[in-house]
Design brief:
Blueprint lengths: L20 H10 L14 E2 L11 H8 L9 H14 L3 E5 L2 H12 L5 E4 L4 H9 L3 E4 L20 H11 L7 E4 L12 H14 L3 E4 L3 H11 L8 H9 L4 E5 L9 E5 L2 H8 L1 H5 L10 H13 L3 H4 L1 H15 L12 E5 H4 L9 H13 L1 E2 L1 E3 L19 E5 L7 H16 L7 E5 L10 E4 L1
Parallel strand pairs: 1-10, 3-4, 5-6, 6-7
Antiparallel strand pairs: 2-8, 7-8, 9-12, 11-12, 13-14
Bound molecules: ligand F0G.
Ligand F0G binds next to helix 4 and helix 5.
Cofactor: pyridoxal 5'-phosphate
GO biological process, one term: aromatic amino acid metabolic process
InterPro entries: ArAA_b-elim_lyase/Thr_aldolase, Beta-eliminating_lyase, PyrdxlP-dep_Trfase, PyrdxlP-dep_Trfase_major, PyrdxlP-dep_Trfase_small
Length: about 450
Amino acid sequence: DTVPLEMHKVRVVQKLNLPPIEERQKAMAGAGNNTFLLQNRDVFMDMLTDSGVNAMSDRQMAAMMVADDSYAGSATYERFEAKLRDLFGMHWVLPTHQGRACENILSQVLVTPGTIVPMNYHFTTTKAHIVLNGGTVEEICYDRGLEVTSSFPFKGDMDIDKLEGLVATHGPDKIAFVRMEAGTNLIGGQPISIANLQEIRAVCDANGLLLVLDASLLADNLWFNKTREESCRDLTIPEITRKIADLCDVIYFSARKLGCARGGAICIRNEDLFRKMRVLVPLYEGFLTYGGMSVREIEALTVGLEETMDVDMISQGPLFIAYMVDELVKRGVPVITPAGGLGCHVDVMRFLPHVPQSQYPAGALASALFIASGIRGMERGSLSEQRNPDGTEVYSNMELLRLAMPRRVFTLSQVKYAIDRLDWLYQNRELIGGLTFVEEPEILRFFYGRLAPV
Ligand code: F0G
């Protein structure tokens, strides 16, 4: 058995609470069975997300102390811009306050009513911005990407035949841009291959299409390129990064998965496109040399980007996730395989076959797991979808309970605790019933909707 080894030591700690089950039950009821509405003081292991909660390094903390405070033209921003140019080889950079802010700007500039955006798979905020601007999302990952148990190493890849089909049907003018998401979030943090990006690039070149990469989860993806893709085996992480970037026209990312509390950026190859997007930055984000981030955050982000080039750093998430996934598979607990990035994804359709999709099984399991363990996960299934304009439900392809693995935050014994509690819950799964909305927001309802047992 491979056991992951922490390639860091803990120098700052935070005390955790593990409230007794009666209190957990009360807290979950008070939160309307929505883990987003729990108070962190009631949570033992917070596996809601890896966003804004990864551990920072000593070097990131130190960099925050030397930040250059100024509204315009700070040296901190110069360092940030230089780092991005160096990593991605794209000259034009725009800072934003987080990932969805990049999506707002990209969508406002590139999406017009009636256009479509082909992508390997959507992310919640991405789709919301595209739809808000009158566009339609077309998800065209390979069918095997949606198979929950698989040994296919790059389930995030885009089906080239489907892409060519969309171009043939709608014509290139109707395609706002092609979007690839590294470490495809909603299908289980599944990576994309460079070979696939090369094929997509060829289709884009043949049809004059823009290729936009969402690099929010690039750190995990780089690890999978290095370890699963033959052509990358002898390349360094910076070389793989550049190989990916060279195939793209635009790269945007949320910095919240890089050990930062805030931040993001859009890197652009073409100056005209940069100019079109630039006008929106002072409007929504802040001036061009801070974009809604504090200078301290920008310094930490610059170091975070640099540390993402260290194999010992980017291996930590995937190795801990692989351990958790493999141990759960051994116990017969249904999870998405192969293990991806971001976190461990429980396959709820198989975990709770007795709960129909209309009763939000993934939300029900998230609620039950908190009560059984004090672990907070996130529903990633039909609850995270938006209803059709006629009010009918959109049932997601997968009903997942995501247990995110914040990088370098949990010890192996904590991960073992999570495995043990999930195993127990699976043995006692008939205790879990479905949920129904008592309060349903119209947009991104999963964030603050309230539910009750059916
Ligand atoms: N794109 C991807 C692939 C993401 O995973 C996220 C955020 C965003 C864009 C939006 O970035 O939060 O900085 O505005 N994912 C978080 C998560 C929320 O928990 O998976 P943001």
